[in-house]
Amino acid sequence: MAQRSKAYRAAAEKIATDTHYDPAQAIALAKDTSVSKFDATVEVAFRLGVDPRKADQMVRGTVNLPHGTGKTATVLVFAAGDRAEAAREAGADFVGSDDLLEKVAGGFTGFDAAVATPDMMGKVGRLGKVLGPRGLMPNPKTGTVTMDVAKAVQDIKGGKIEFRVDKHSNLHFIIGKASFDQDKLQENFDAALEEVLRLKPSSSKGRYISKATISTTNGPGVPVDTNALRG
Question: 143, 131 in Cβ contact below 8 A?
Answer without folding.
Answer: no
